[in-house]
Amino acid sequence: MCELDIDRLESERLSLQASLDAAKTQPERNRMGQFATPTVLAQDVLRHAKSLLSPGAEVRFLDPAIGTGAFYSALATVFPHGRILEATGYDIDPHYGKPAGRLWAATELSIRIADFTQQVPEPRYNLVVCNPPYVRHHHLSNEEKTRLQQRTFKACGTKIGGLAGLYCHFMGLTHAWLAPEAVSCWLVPSEFMDVNYGQALKRYLLDRVTLLHIHRFDPADVQFADALVSSAVVCFRNSSPPGGHRVAFTFGGSLTNPKLSRTISAKALVHETKWTRFPESNLRPPSTQPRLADFFKIKRGIATGDNSYFILSAEDIQARGLPQECFTPILPSPRYIETDEIDADAAGVPLLTRRLFLLDAKLPEPEIERQFPTLFAYLQEGRSNGLHKRYLCAHRTLWYAQESRPPAPIVCTYLGRSDTKSGRPFRFILNRSRATVANVYLTMYPTDAMRCALASEPSLIRVVWQHLNRIPPAQLLGAGRVYGGGLHKLEPRELANVPMPEIANLRGHSMAARIQPELFEMAP
Description:
By secondary structure, the protein is of the alpha/beta class. It has three domains: 6-238, Vaccinia Virus protein VP39 (Rossmann fold, 3-Layer(aba) Sandwich), CATH 3.40.50.150; 292-355 and 402-522; 361-401, no CATH class. The chain contains 19 helices and 20 strands. α1 (6-22) packs antiparallel against α4 and α12 (365-371) crosses α13.
């Protein structure tokens, strides 16, 4: 085959990519997880992949989600033409696959318009590079999840959980296509490194293959302009991991020129739940410090089903003549709360400028019609808009009744950024009202022992709250997960695992040791 004018073809590919993307709506591309790989990034990945192959090795290349061929273009740029024996790409969408096939028709690249997850494996490829479709589990039916789980388990011996995105299945399925010692590089969301569903994928990377390198891009440097996702490149070899193996973790900059780097023992990674701590941090020694879970039961706030319908202002309730007894106070979004301590009036309603209430009626509709005609009319408005058929509402016994979230004495914001003016990405708010919260907060309910201590000495809650606000920001950021653009999130379990700061200081408090005496024996 003649030498390629790869620069010209790449220029044509970029024009083709732009026109094909423009012909689809953003929601359509989001549903199918179609986010094109930038040229510079694709070439960086292929240069690194080349360094992992044996010098001079001939290449049989596979991209299970080829798109318009960004990685093949990078392959042809980085590798001498004579080293590429075979190149195969799959794409489920003919909108991209057919024009790409015409673009690369004069090359060794064979593009197959098919669902890769349905194909019979051909285990001869020694280089797999892929930016798999970022399809969230919400867009996969239960039948599709079951099919993918079964095929993935057959391919790699790993059962992927039901909350995993499609990209996890792509990585597992491709195992059956790899030749011995094949190199595989994946551009994927970095969230698998921290979340529960990622545990199975991490076991695969540690047990079934030799994990070589994970590069995590700076979350503030979003790799895809049209997808708010923090990305990582995962590289591994299709071989059993050798004894004493260490994995390279890099961060920031490019894959071949990172800002930070560190190697971590593969054996130690088995016990580390959050891999995004690396390379900034080293392995954590086993901790004997008490955690927040020893003092609080932490839950996510209420997911109402439609905040604009279920949450009303005092003025709206009055204007509609709705019964106040069917509403409970709810805190507004954190951006409307200027202080970290909320006082209340005699009725327990927060003393805030923005005073909101959550509809939380527990009576059946016939009884509401009899007792509260105006509220019944409001519910019929919701029905006419199809609200009762939405997922959350349809799965309730009463579609308008909210799950139980009594007021919590302390609530924590659910989302935060590392560059806030206050220097605190997450806020702990002392709630002296009877307001509940929506799911932009985490609720912190005292454990039984803590509640007993508070009953004897209520001022203890302020002491604990002050300690919470002294938690170093880096400690909270390290406990949670990060998304593109530098947005951080804390799930209940992640917050529960944060060590309680300055626990020894509570020894001086007259009631503190009654909470859980053995905890104070641990404190230095």
